[in-house]
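pls read this protein.

:::
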Amino acid sequence: MAPIEGECAICTSDLKTEDAKDIAALPCGHTYHWVCVNGWLQAAPGAKYNRDGTSKENFDDLHTESFQNQALIDELLENLNREEETHRQTMCNYQALLNTKEEYEELQVVYFEKALNATKSVSFRINVITDE
């Protein structure tokens, strides 16, 4: 999110990026603290406040849309986190399979070495017996 700069057009306090969910921007382009502008709009319901016709209805729609957008962002982030965890688990499973395969191959080498030694031993005994 881009940094929010400026001050509330009502109370003149600084607007801070970390308070973004508590900041409202009206169609006129002015930014306010949600609490400040909501109180201001409550004071004269239905009145037009700017040349562009900003009223409480415009503000409520804008603020609701902002919450819906944030809810969508939160949902997408949650889905990405779940997907990341699934990928991590899949990688762990593949690593475990790879380790198991490597262990299996090492056991095969040991087994074949023993079998080869046993075959050599039997072959040697057969040669000794046939030479006698």
